[in-house]
Amino acid sequence: MNSIDYYEEQYERDRACIEAILDECLTPPQGFEQSKVWQAARYSALGGGKRVRPILLLMTCRIFGDDIPDNAYRFATAIEMIHSYSLIHDDLPSMDNDDYRRGQPSCHKVFGEGIAILAGDLLLNLAFETMLDSIGTMCSEAHRRAMRTVAKSAGGHGMVLGQDLDLSMEDACFSSVTIEDVESMALLKTGSLIAGAIETAGHLCGASDEDLRDLRCAGQHLGLAFQIRDDILDGVELSNHFGKTRHKDERDGKKTFVTVAGREKAIALLSEHTDAAMDAFLRLEHRGKEVGILKELTRRLMERTY
After folding, report:
1. Could you state, in chain order, the average pLDDT of each consecutive group of 10 residues for the chain (306 residues)?
2. At what angle do helices 209-234 and 179-189 cross, to 10 degrees?
3. Cα-atom radius of gyration of the chain, to the nearest Å?
4. Are the CB atoms for 62 and 6 separated by under 8 Å?
5. Interior/surface letters 170-197, b for 16+ CB within 10 angstroms, e for the rest
6. What whole-number distance in Å separates Cα of residue 200 and Cα of residue 195?
7. DSSP string of 204-267?
8. Helix (H) or strand (E) holding 33
9. Exposed (0-12), middle (13-18) or buried (19+): which is 35, by Cβ within 10 Å?
10. Dihedral angle, C-alpha 157, 162, 165, 167, nearest 10 °
11. What is each CA distance from 287 to 202, 219, 281, 283, 292, in whole angstroms?
12. Does residue 105 sit in helix, strand or coil?
């Protein structure tokens, strides 16, 4: 089997595994099968998606050996729950106000704003239940660091702070917003959970401090590149599978890499951050890590049309 076939088969196996665990964890409590909040959480978390963050975690684990920790799958699923919660809240009228997500009506359009907020809260809390349950009574220092990485990536030092910066820029005039401002926001809002997924894998696998630094570096640049690619795709008609409203950034006056710096500059920054992520993977490779599958995933994410 060549490396591309291996990548594709492994990606699909990982995605199927993540979705099976999501389905299991999102089973409503007995007697509450018709609960709207559980239905809404299932609708959003199981309604499609590339599962980039959990698969990044699992593929990063594999650079340390074929036998990845059993609880890596639960940690990966927890990160997907956090990502799904963030999308529910991001789509709310008081936030980015988007009617579509993953090719279907947003959670609040189906279940109403109140239930959508609660569904996001459910997914965030369930993520930590899932990680704790996977550890059981044997919480090692590695597990503690892994959970702290997830929490920090999702909270007021990461994704939540990034969303705050995004909202604060909405009313600012374009002349007052620099590309550095956009980059700082994107590094937190999008990049922190991507970098957190990669770093969490390192903690679960007992990575050295040197390896953790390069994993963190790769994740941050990959997260920025991922957001830049999203911003570029918002303004072009490359695919019918984009999954959310097209041209919304320009319509709503959002401050993005494209609307602030222009498409050509955004493409240059995409290349710059992709190269920086690849350089970090190469440093890991020089220390004996098998990073081919991570490089292939990075290449595909940066060339995607949705």
Report:
1. 72 95 97 96 94 96 91 97 97 93 94 98 98 87 96 97 94 90 96 98 97 97 96 69 56 84 95 97 96 92 86
2. 120
3. 19
4. no
5. eeeeeeeeeeebbbebbbbbbbbbbbbb
6. 8
7. HTT--HHHHHHHHHHHHHHHHHHHHHHHHHHTS---S---S-TTHHHHHT---HHHHH-HHHHH
8. none
9. middle
10. -130
11. 14, 18, 10, 7, 13
12. strand
- Write down the pLDDT at residue 238: 46
Q: Note whether 207 and 69 are within 8 A (CB).
A: no
Residues 6 or more apart whose CB falls under 8 angstroms from that of 144 comprise none
State residue 144's pLDDT score: 95
Give the closest residue to 254 by CA, choosing from 158, 161, 174, 191.
174
Pairwise CA distance, residues 29 & 279, whole Å: 47
Strand-pairing partners, residue 104, are 101
Tokens of 263: 């498409």
Question: If you search the block for the tokens 């196996």, which residue do you land on?
Answer: 13
Q: What is the pLDDT of residue 234?
A: 85
Closest CA to 146 of 157, 159, 135, 137: 135
Q: Which domains does the chain have, with CATH numbers?
A: 3-303 (1.10.600.10)
- How confident is the model at residue 138, as a pLDDT? 77
**Among all chains, which residue has been given the structure tokens 């409590």?**
29
Strand partners, 105: 100
pLDDT of amino acid 244? 57
Q: Which two tokens stand for residue 285?
A: 């490779």
Q: DSSP letters along 113-128, please? A: HHHHHHHHHHHHHHHH
Cα distance between residue 76 and residue 174, in whole Å: 37
